[in-house]
């Protein structure tokens, strides 16, 4: 306990030397800032890299990761402290590197070989290498198992041809977790898929940026034309990539809390109500309390799932968090827009509160899709938690 108190004091002092302390509302704006121009996107990613590098050098990053893979070998509580302290200061958002820390790191830890762990994890956590996730295809999102990107054996290499889409931060990434079909003739579609580590600068890889509903620039299409990969660029075993990907996805869902900060939605609603002079309006108070209560439930649910205490450690429990978080994101962003009134839908350019509220509303739609849509999560919960009959194929 003393150790945790001392650790928090050190993290806070380190941040205070570099960044001004800020109020919660400013923090919220920063946490979910999106870039509406390509150069803004580049600056956002660069800001994240610079901060993660500095945190790592100071010994405040990857605190839970074992030391042999570049981490500090500490506990989840240390990780939480760093996340909490980051929220107090006006520093860049680390969200652009979330796929590396939140998806690639646990996937490599759980399924990659020892050499791969030692090669990739230290550079990932030090922000020397950025990762992206190359799962979805134009005709394989919800029905990911029908993916068509193909990997053909050629001597002792694999030749990959296909297309990926909605690949967040692929234009910034050095490596991608790539799912490709290595056995087109397998009896079951999921048993012929392999997960590869794709170096994004490998010959034959073309990344084409897309703009999302909220005007952000993190999405991309990725085209693969006869890209040559080696056996040592496979995570796990050949034709067992579906199992590896399921581990990635269940981590993605349970980690999906929908944006920055504990209590963020409550604070945003309170700020919007104060600006609108409606803090004493009984109906508004009721709506804010509902958001605040649900937000706390979400945090507790996520903690229970991470501790393996909810639903006996059933991996489908992540779907529960994802649906709850997505619904809450929509509910709270609608509340803020209602409170901002006309200024939430038509505002002077550069008005930060209204701009943020409109972005949050658009962004809340994404949260019901990313990592698998709500309909798919409900199917998973029905089949894997409630034991209902499987959906007819
Ligand atoms: C913000 C964001 C970031 C993303 N980042 C990445 C990324 O980095 N890498 C990556 O690989 N992908 C990424 N994705 C893609 C995401 O995983 C897919 O969009 C998602 O899985 C849905 O697939 P789809 O878009 O093809 O929709 P579809 O699968 O075409 O679904 C269309 C609609 O049909 C419904 N539907 C489909 N099948 C069923 C069914 N069996 N039962 C009931 N309803 C059904 C869906 O719920 C949905 O409403 C991202 C998406 C978003 C929004």
UniProtKB/TrEMBL annotation:
<protein>
    <submittedName>
        <fullName>Unannotated protein</fullName>
    </submittedName>
</protein>
<dbReference type="GO" id="GO:0016627">
    <property type="term" value="F:oxidoreductase activity, acting on the CH-CH group of donors"/>
</dbReference>
<comment type="similarity">
    <text>Belongs to the acyl-CoA dehydrogenase family.</text>
</comment>
<feature type="domain" description="Acyl-CoA oxidase/dehydrogenase middle">
    <location>
        <begin position="132"/>
        <end position="215"/>
    </location>
</feature>
<keyword id="KW-0560">Oxidoreductase</keyword>
<dbReference type="GO" id="GO:0005886">
    <property type="term" value="C:plasma membrane"/>
</dbReference>
<dbReference type="InterPro" id="IPR037069">
    <property type="entry name" value="AcylCoA_DH/ox_N_sf"/>
</dbReference>
<keyword id="KW-0274">FAD</keyword>
<keyword id="KW-0285">Flavoprotein</keyword>
<dbReference type="InterPro" id="IPR013786">
    <property type="entry name" value="AcylCoA_DH/ox_N"/>
</dbReference>
<dbReference type="InterPro" id="IPR009100">
    <property type="entry name" value="AcylCoA_DH/oxidase_NM_dom_sf"/>
</dbReference>
<dbReference type="InterPro" id="IPR009075">
    <property type="entry name" value="AcylCo_DH/oxidase_C"/>
</dbReference>
<dbReference type="InterPro" id="IPR006091">
    <property type="entry name" value="Acyl-CoA_Oxase/DH_mid-dom"/>
</dbReference>
<dbReference type="Pfam" id="PF00441">
    <property type="entry name" value="Acyl-CoA_dh_1"/>
</dbReference>
<dbReference type="GO" id="GO:0050660">
    <property type="term" value="F:flavin adenine dinucleotide binding"/>
</dbReference>
<dbReference type="InterPro" id="IPR052161">
    <property type="entry name" value="Mycobact_Acyl-CoA_DH"/>
</dbReference>
<dbReference type="InterPro" id="IPR036250">
    <property type="entry name" value="AcylCo_DH-like_C"/>
</dbReference>
<feature type="domain" description="Acyl-CoA dehydrogenase/oxidase C-terminal">
    <location>
        <begin position="239"/>
        <end position="386"/>
    </location>
</feature>
<feature type="domain" description="Acyl-CoA dehydrogenase/oxidase N-terminal">
    <location>
        <begin position="51"/>
        <end position="126"/>
    </location>
</feature>
<dbReference type="Pfam" id="PF02771">
    <property type="entry name" value="Acyl-CoA_dh_N"/>
</dbReference>
<dbReference type="Pfam" id="PF02770">
    <property type="entry name" value="Acyl-CoA_dh_M"/>
</dbReference>
<dbReference type="InterPro" id="IPR046373">
    <property type="entry name" value="Acyl-CoA_Oxase/DH_mid-dom_sf"/>
</dbReference>
């Amino acid at each position: 306990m003393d150790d945790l108190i001392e650790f928090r004091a050190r993290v806070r002092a380190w941040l205070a030397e570099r960044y001004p302390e800020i109020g919660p509302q400013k923090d919220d704006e920063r946490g979910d800032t999106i870039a509406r121009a390509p150069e803004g996107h580049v600056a956002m990613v660069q800001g994240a890299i610079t901060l993660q590098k500095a945190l790592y050098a100071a010994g405040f990053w990857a605190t839970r990761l074992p030391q042999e893979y570049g981490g500090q070998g500490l506990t989840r509580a240390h990780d939480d402290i760093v996340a909490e302290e980051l929220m107090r200061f006006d520093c860049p958002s680390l969200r652009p590197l979330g796929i590396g820390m939140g998806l690639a790191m646990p996937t490599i830890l759980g399924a990659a070989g020892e050499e791969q762990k030692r090669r990739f994890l230290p550079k990932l956590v030090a922000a020397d290498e950025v990762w992206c996730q190359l799962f979805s295809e134009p005709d394989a999102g919800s029905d990911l198992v029908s993916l068509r990107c193909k990997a053909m054996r050629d001597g002792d290499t694999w030749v990959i041809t296909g297309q990926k889409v909605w690949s967040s931060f692929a234009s910034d990434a050095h490596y991608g977790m790539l799912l490709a079909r290595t056995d087109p003739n397998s009896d079951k579609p999921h048993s012929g898929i392999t997960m590869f580590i794709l170096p994004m600068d490998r010959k034959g890889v073309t990344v084409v940026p897309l703009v999302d509903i909220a005007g952000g620039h993190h999405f991309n299409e990725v085209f693969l034309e006869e890209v040559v990969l080696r056996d040592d660029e496979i995570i796990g075993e050949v034709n067992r990539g579906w199992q590896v990907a399921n581990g990635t996805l269940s981590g993605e869902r349970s980690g999906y809390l929908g944006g920055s900060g504990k209590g963020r939605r409550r604070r945003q609603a309170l700020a919007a109500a104060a600006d609108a002079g409606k803090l004493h309006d009984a109906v508004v108070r009721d709506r804010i309390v509902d958001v605040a209560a649900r937000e706390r439930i979400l945090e507790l649910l996520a903690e229970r799932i991470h501790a393996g205490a909810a639903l006996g450690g059933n991996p489908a429990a992540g779907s529960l968090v994802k649906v709850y978080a997505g619904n809450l994101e929509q509910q709270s962003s609608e509340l803020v827009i209602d409170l901002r009134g006309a200024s939430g839908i038509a505002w002077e350019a550069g008005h930060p509160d209204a701009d943020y509220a409109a972005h949050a509303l658009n962004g809340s739609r994404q949260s019901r899709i990313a990592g698998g849509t709500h309909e798919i999560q409900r199917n998973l919960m029905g089949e894997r938690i409630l034991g209902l009959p499987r959906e007819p194929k």
